[in-house]
Design a protein that fits this description.
This protein has twelve helices and twelve strands. The chain is of the alpha/beta class. α2 links the parallel β4 and β5. The relative contact order is 0.13.
Amino acid sequence: MEYRGFGNTGKKVGVIGLGCEHLDGKPYDKVKETVDAALEYGVNIFDVFMPGREVRENIAKALGGNRDKVMIQGHIGSTDMRQQYDVSRDITSVKKYFEDLLRIFGGHIEFGMMFFIDSEEDYRNVFETEFAGYAERLKKQGDIGHIGFSSHNPVTAVKAVNTGLPEVLMFSVNPAFDRVPASANVLDDFGEGFTNIGGKMTGNDPVRADLYAICEAWGVAVTTMKTLGAGLLLSSERTPFKNPLTVGQCIHYALTRPAVKSALIGCRSRAEVEEAARYFGLTEEERDYTDAVASFQSEFRGRCVYCGHCAPCPSGIDVAAVHRYLDVARLTPGQVPAAPA
Protein backbone atom coordinates (compact mmCIF):
# COMPACT_ATOMS: atom_id res chain seq x y z
CA MET A 1 0.00 0.00 0.00
CA GLU A 2 1.05 3.56 -0.66
CA TYR A 3 -0.04 6.24 1.81
CA ARG A 4 -0.71 9.96 1.39
CA GLY A 5 -1.14 12.81 3.81
CA PHE A 6 -4.85 13.46 4.23
CA GLY A 7 -5.20 17.20 3.68
CA ASN A 8 -5.06 19.22 6.88
CA THR A 9 -6.29 16.38 9.09
CA GLY A 10 -2.85 15.12 10.07
CA LYS A 11 -3.88 11.59 9.02
CA LYS A 12 -2.32 9.34 6.40
CA VAL A 13 -4.53 7.14 4.25
CA GLY A 14 -3.92 4.35 1.79
CA VAL A 15 -4.36 5.45 -1.79
CA ILE A 16 -6.87 2.63 -2.20
CA GLY A 17 -9.73 2.48 0.27
CA LEU A 18 -12.75 0.24 0.65
CA GLY A 19 -16.22 1.37 -0.34
CA CYS A 20 -18.46 -0.94 1.66
CA GLU A 21 -21.79 -0.51 -0.13
CA HIS A 22 -21.62 -3.83 -1.95
CA LEU A 23 -21.31 -5.62 1.39
CA ASP A 24 -24.89 -4.59 2.15
CA GLY A 25 -27.12 -7.66 2.14
CA LYS A 26 -24.17 -10.06 2.05
CA PRO A 27 -23.78 -12.85 4.63
CA TYR A 28 -21.30 -12.26 7.42
CA ASP A 29 -18.72 -14.71 6.06
CA LYS A 30 -18.53 -12.74 2.79
CA VAL A 31 -18.19 -9.45 4.70
CA LYS A 32 -15.46 -11.01 6.86
CA GLU A 33 -13.61 -12.32 3.80
CA THR A 34 -13.62 -8.88 2.16
CA VAL A 35 -12.64 -6.95 5.29
CA ASP A 36 -9.83 -9.39 6.07
CA ALA A 37 -8.44 -9.03 2.54
CA ALA A 38 -8.57 -5.24 2.78
CA LEU A 39 -6.65 -5.29 6.06
CA GLU A 40 -4.05 -7.66 4.64
CA TYR A 41 -3.37 -5.21 1.80
CA GLY A 42 -3.03 -2.26 4.17
CA VAL A 43 -6.36 -0.59 3.42
CA ASN A 44 -6.98 1.83 6.29
CA ILE A 45 -10.03 3.84 5.21
CA PHE A 46 -13.53 2.41 4.87
CA ASP A 47 -16.63 4.26 3.70
CA VAL A 48 -19.79 3.17 5.49
CA PHE A 49 -22.66 5.29 4.25
CA MET A 50 -25.26 2.51 4.38
CA PRO A 51 -27.89 3.09 7.08
CA GLY A 52 -28.87 -0.55 7.65
CA ARG A 53 -27.87 -1.87 11.06
CA GLU A 54 -27.01 -5.39 9.85
CA VAL A 55 -24.32 -4.34 7.38
CA ARG A 56 -22.82 -1.89 9.89
CA GLU A 57 -22.69 -4.54 12.60
CA ASN A 58 -21.22 -7.11 10.19
CA ILE A 59 -18.41 -4.73 9.22
CA ALA A 60 -17.68 -3.84 12.85
CA LYS A 61 -17.70 -7.51 13.84
CA ALA A 62 -15.36 -8.37 10.97
CA LEU A 63 -12.95 -5.65 12.07
CA GLY A 64 -13.01 -6.92 15.65
CA GLY A 65 -9.77 -6.00 17.39
CA ASN A 66 -8.51 -4.30 14.23
CA ARG A 67 -10.87 -1.33 14.56
CA ASP A 68 -7.94 0.94 15.46
CA LYS A 69 -6.24 0.08 12.14
CA VAL A 70 -9.06 1.57 10.08
CA MET A 71 -10.52 5.04 9.70
CA ILE A 72 -14.25 5.16 9.03
CA GLN A 73 -16.12 7.64 6.86
CA GLY A 74 -19.55 7.60 8.49
CA HIS A 75 -22.36 9.66 6.97
CA ILE A 76 -24.53 12.13 8.84
CA GLY A 77 -27.99 12.20 7.29
CA SER A 78 -28.04 8.74 5.71
CA THR A 79 -31.22 7.07 6.93
CA ASP A 80 -33.25 3.98 6.09
CA MET A 81 -36.51 4.05 4.16
CA ARG A 82 -38.09 0.71 3.21
CA GLN A 83 -34.70 -1.03 2.94
CA GLN A 84 -33.38 1.73 0.66
CA TYR A 85 -31.15 4.53 1.85
CA ASP A 86 -32.69 7.94 2.13
CA VAL A 87 -31.33 11.43 2.72
CA SER A 88 -32.70 13.17 5.80
CA ARG A 89 -32.15 16.64 7.27
CA ASP A 90 -34.56 16.01 10.14
CA ILE A 91 -32.27 16.23 13.15
CA THR A 92 -34.17 13.66 15.19
CA SER A 93 -33.86 11.07 12.42
CA VAL A 94 -30.28 12.12 11.62
CA LYS A 95 -29.22 11.65 15.24
CA LYS A 96 -30.91 8.27 15.49
CA TYR A 97 -29.00 6.77 12.57
CA PHE A 98 -25.66 8.46 13.13
CA GLU A 99 -25.50 7.84 16.86
CA ASP A 100 -26.29 4.19 16.21
CA LEU A 101 -23.33 4.16 13.80
CA LEU A 102 -21.16 5.66 16.54
CA ARG A 103 -22.25 2.98 18.97
CA ILE A 104 -21.56 0.16 16.54
CA PHE A 105 -18.04 1.38 15.76
CA GLY A 106 -16.97 1.98 19.33
CA GLY A 107 -18.23 5.50 20.06
CA HIS A 108 -15.99 7.36 17.62
CA ILE A 109 -15.92 7.90 13.85
CA GLU A 110 -12.84 9.43 12.27
CA PHE A 111 -14.70 11.31 9.51
CA GLY A 112 -18.28 12.48 9.96
CA MET A 113 -19.51 13.09 6.43
CA MET A 114 -22.52 15.34 5.91
CA PHE A 115 -24.45 13.23 3.44
CA PHE A 116 -25.33 14.00 -0.17
CA ILE A 117 -24.99 17.76 -0.66
CA ASP A 118 -25.79 18.07 -4.37
CA SER A 119 -28.24 20.90 -4.88
CA GLU A 120 -28.78 24.45 -3.70
CA GLU A 121 -31.61 23.11 -1.54
CA ASP A 122 -29.25 20.52 -0.04
CA TYR A 123 -26.76 23.28 0.70
CA ARG A 124 -29.33 25.45 2.47
CA ASN A 125 -30.75 22.54 4.43
CA VAL A 126 -27.28 21.72 5.75
CA PHE A 127 -25.42 25.00 6.16
CA GLU A 128 -28.35 27.25 6.98
CA THR A 129 -29.97 24.96 9.57
CA GLU A 130 -28.95 23.19 12.76
CA PHE A 131 -27.62 20.30 10.66
CA ALA A 132 -24.12 21.78 10.27
CA GLY A 133 -24.20 22.81 13.92
CA TYR A 134 -24.88 19.20 14.88
CA ALA A 135 -21.77 18.11 12.93
CA GLU A 136 -19.73 20.77 14.72
CA ARG A 137 -20.99 19.58 18.11
CA LEU A 138 -20.06 16.01 17.24
CA LYS A 139 -16.51 17.14 16.53
CA LYS A 140 -16.30 19.30 19.65
CA GLN A 141 -17.50 16.37 21.76
CA GLY A 142 -14.91 14.05 20.21
CA ASP A 143 -17.53 11.79 18.64
CA ILE A 144 -16.01 12.48 15.23
CA GLY A 145 -12.47 13.48 14.43
CA HIS A 146 -13.12 15.58 11.33
CA ILE A 147 -16.06 17.00 9.39
CA GLY A 148 -16.55 16.14 5.74
CA PHE A 149 -19.32 15.85 3.18
CA SER A 150 -20.27 13.86 0.10
CA SER A 151 -21.40 15.30 -3.23
CA HIS A 152 -21.76 14.58 -6.94
CA ASN A 153 -22.21 18.20 -8.03
CA PRO A 154 -19.10 20.36 -8.48
CA VAL A 155 -20.92 23.71 -8.22
CA THR A 156 -22.50 22.84 -4.87
CA ALA A 157 -19.32 21.14 -3.68
CA VAL A 158 -17.27 24.30 -4.34
CA LYS A 159 -19.79 26.34 -2.37
CA ALA A 160 -19.64 23.90 0.54
CA VAL A 161 -15.83 23.78 0.57
CA ASN A 162 -15.69 27.57 0.57
CA THR A 163 -17.56 27.71 3.90
CA GLY A 164 -14.31 26.53 5.48
CA LEU A 165 -16.13 23.89 7.54
CA PRO A 166 -15.37 20.62 5.69
CA GLU A 167 -11.97 18.97 5.92
CA VAL A 168 -12.87 16.04 3.66
CA LEU A 169 -14.89 15.71 0.47
CA MET A 170 -16.13 12.43 -0.93
CA PHE A 171 -16.76 13.11 -4.62
CA SER A 172 -17.68 11.10 -7.70
CA VAL A 173 -14.49 11.02 -9.77
CA ASN A 174 -13.89 9.18 -13.02
CA PRO A 175 -12.90 10.22 -16.56
CA ALA A 176 -16.49 10.10 -17.84
CA PHE A 177 -17.95 12.30 -15.11
CA ASP A 178 -15.09 14.78 -15.46
CA ARG A 179 -16.06 15.33 -19.10
CA VAL A 180 -19.70 16.15 -18.40
CA PRO A 181 -20.65 19.82 -17.92
CA ALA A 182 -21.32 20.85 -14.33
CA SER A 183 -24.88 21.79 -15.34
CA ALA A 184 -25.69 18.11 -16.03
CA ASN A 185 -26.73 15.70 -13.31
CA VAL A 186 -24.20 12.90 -13.72
CA LEU A 187 -26.35 10.45 -11.81
CA ASP A 188 -29.56 11.54 -13.53
CA ASP A 189 -31.47 11.46 -10.26
CA PHE A 190 -30.41 7.83 -9.81
CA GLY A 191 -32.97 6.93 -12.44
CA GLU A 192 -31.60 6.03 -15.86
CA GLY A 193 -27.98 6.30 -14.79
CA PHE A 194 -25.51 7.68 -17.34
CA THR A 195 -28.24 8.67 -19.79
CA ASN A 196 -26.72 9.81 -23.07
CA ILE A 197 -23.54 10.72 -21.27
CA GLY A 198 -21.55 10.19 -24.43
CA GLY A 199 -23.46 12.94 -26.14
CA LYS A 200 -22.77 15.35 -23.28
CA MET A 201 -19.07 14.61 -22.90
CA THR A 202 -16.60 17.18 -24.19
CA GLY A 203 -13.23 18.14 -22.74
CA ASN A 204 -12.56 18.12 -19.02
CA ASP A 205 -15.18 20.29 -17.32
CA PRO A 206 -13.51 23.43 -15.92
CA VAL A 207 -15.80 23.57 -12.88
CA ARG A 208 -14.68 20.12 -11.80
CA ALA A 209 -11.06 21.09 -12.38
CA ASP A 210 -11.63 24.18 -10.25
CA LEU A 211 -13.14 22.06 -7.48
CA TYR A 212 -10.06 19.85 -7.28
CA ALA A 213 -7.79 22.90 -7.28
CA ILE A 214 -9.83 24.66 -4.57
CA CYS A 215 -9.71 21.56 -2.39
CA GLU A 216 -5.95 21.40 -2.87
CA ALA A 217 -5.65 25.07 -1.89
CA TRP A 218 -7.87 24.69 1.19
CA GLY A 219 -6.17 21.46 2.27
CA VAL A 220 -9.45 19.59 1.90
CA ALA A 221 -8.75 15.90 1.26
CA VAL A 222 -10.78 14.20 -1.48
CA THR A 223 -11.82 10.56 -1.45
CA THR A 224 -13.49 9.17 -4.54
CA MET A 225 -16.66 7.26 -5.23
CA LYS A 226 -17.82 5.90 -8.59
CA THR A 227 -14.13 5.40 -9.40
CA LEU A 228 -14.97 2.58 -11.82
CA GLY A 229 -18.20 4.19 -12.98
CA ALA A 230 -20.11 1.39 -11.19
CA GLY A 231 -18.17 -1.04 -13.38
CA LEU A 232 -19.43 0.48 -16.62
CA LEU A 233 -16.06 1.94 -17.58
CA LEU A 234 -14.62 -1.59 -17.62
CA SER A 235 -17.12 -2.95 -20.14
CA SER A 236 -16.60 -2.62 -23.89
CA GLU A 237 -20.39 -2.68 -24.38
CA ARG A 238 -21.24 -0.14 -21.69
CA THR A 239 -18.38 2.33 -21.46
CA PRO A 240 -19.00 5.81 -22.92
CA PHE A 241 -15.48 5.62 -24.37
CA LYS A 242 -14.65 3.72 -27.52
CA ASN A 243 -12.43 1.39 -25.52
CA PRO A 244 -12.91 0.13 -21.95
CA LEU A 245 -10.55 1.06 -19.15
CA THR A 246 -8.95 -1.34 -16.71
CA VAL A 247 -9.41 -1.18 -12.95
CA GLY A 248 -5.84 0.06 -12.64
CA GLN A 249 -6.38 2.84 -15.18
CA CYS A 250 -9.52 4.02 -13.36
CA ILE A 251 -7.69 4.07 -10.03
CA HIS A 252 -4.75 5.92 -11.55
CA TYR A 253 -7.04 8.50 -13.13
CA ALA A 254 -8.59 9.27 -9.74
CA LEU A 255 -5.25 9.41 -7.95
CA THR A 256 -3.82 11.88 -10.45
CA ARG A 257 -6.54 14.47 -9.73
CA PRO A 258 -5.38 17.31 -7.45
CA ALA A 259 -6.40 16.83 -3.80
CA VAL A 260 -7.46 13.20 -4.29
CA LYS A 261 -5.89 11.11 -1.55
CA SER A 262 -7.72 7.78 -1.74
CA ALA A 263 -9.72 6.00 -4.43
CA LEU A 264 -12.46 4.06 -2.66
CA ILE A 265 -13.28 0.88 -4.56
CA GLY A 266 -16.53 -0.96 -3.95
CA CYS A 267 -15.52 -4.55 -3.28
CA ARG A 268 -17.61 -7.49 -2.14
CA SER A 269 -15.06 -10.32 -2.12
CA ARG A 270 -11.40 -11.09 -1.56
CA ALA A 271 -10.95 -11.45 -5.31
CA GLU A 272 -12.18 -7.91 -5.94
CA VAL A 273 -9.88 -6.50 -3.24
CA GLU A 274 -6.98 -8.36 -4.83
CA GLU A 275 -7.92 -7.02 -8.25
CA ALA A 276 -7.80 -3.45 -6.94
CA ALA A 277 -4.49 -4.10 -5.16
CA ARG A 278 -2.89 -5.22 -8.44
CA TYR A 279 -2.60 -1.51 -9.13
CA PHE A 280 0.63 -1.44 -7.14
CA GLY A 281 2.30 -3.93 -9.46
CA LEU A 282 1.42 -2.14 -12.68
CA THR A 283 3.97 -0.35 -14.82
CA GLU A 284 3.47 3.31 -15.72
CA GLU A 285 2.43 2.19 -19.19
CA GLU A 286 -0.22 -0.14 -17.75
CA ARG A 287 -1.55 2.64 -15.53
CA ASP A 288 -1.70 5.16 -18.37
CA TYR A 289 -5.32 5.96 -19.22
CA THR A 290 -4.77 8.69 -21.81
CA ASP A 291 -5.38 6.63 -24.95
CA ALA A 292 -8.43 4.94 -23.45
CA VAL A 293 -10.19 8.23 -22.70
CA ALA A 294 -9.12 10.06 -25.87
CA SER A 295 -12.39 9.35 -27.69
CA PHE A 296 -15.91 8.42 -26.70
CA GLN A 297 -19.09 6.99 -28.09
CA SER A 298 -21.89 9.27 -29.23
CA GLU A 299 -24.53 7.44 -27.20
CA PHE A 300 -24.60 5.91 -23.75
CA ARG A 301 -28.31 5.62 -23.18
CA GLY A 302 -30.38 3.73 -20.61
CA ARG A 303 -27.50 2.49 -18.43
CA CYS A 304 -28.23 1.87 -14.78
CA VAL A 305 -25.61 3.07 -12.31
CA TYR A 306 -26.31 -0.14 -10.42
CA CYS A 307 -29.43 -1.91 -9.32
CA GLY A 308 -30.98 -0.71 -6.10
CA HIS A 309 -29.79 2.88 -6.27
CA CYS A 310 -33.16 4.12 -7.51
CA ALA A 311 -35.55 1.61 -5.95
CA PRO A 312 -38.33 1.15 -6.71
CA CYS A 313 -36.93 0.61 -10.21
CA PRO A 314 -38.64 2.82 -12.82
CA SER A 315 -38.29 -0.01 -15.34
CA GLY A 316 -39.87 -2.57 -13.02
CA ILE A 317 -36.70 -4.63 -12.56
CA ASP A 318 -36.76 -7.11 -9.66
CA VAL A 319 -33.71 -5.71 -7.85
CA ALA A 320 -33.42 -8.62 -5.43
CA ALA A 321 -33.40 -11.06 -8.35
CA VAL A 322 -30.66 -9.08 -10.08
CA HIS A 323 -28.47 -9.19 -6.99
CA ARG A 324 -29.03 -12.94 -6.62
CA TYR A 325 -27.93 -13.28 -10.25
CA LEU A 326 -24.82 -11.20 -9.59
CA ASP A 327 -23.85 -13.34 -6.63
CA VAL A 328 -24.26 -16.57 -8.58
CA ALA A 329 -22.55 -15.32 -11.72
CA ARG A 330 -19.84 -13.39 -9.84
CA LEU A 331 -20.36 -10.39 -12.10
CA THR A 332 -20.24 -6.72 -11.35
CA PRO A 333 -23.37 -4.63 -11.88
CA GLY A 334 -21.70 -2.98 -14.84
CA GLN A 335 -21.66 -6.34 -16.66
CA VAL A 336 -25.40 -6.91 -16.40
CA PRO A 337 -27.28 -6.28 -19.65
CA ALA A 338 -28.89 -2.87 -19.95
CA ALA A 339 -32.36 -2.37 -18.57
CA PRO A 340 -35.14 -2.24 -21.14
CA ALA A 341 -35.90 1.24 -22.44
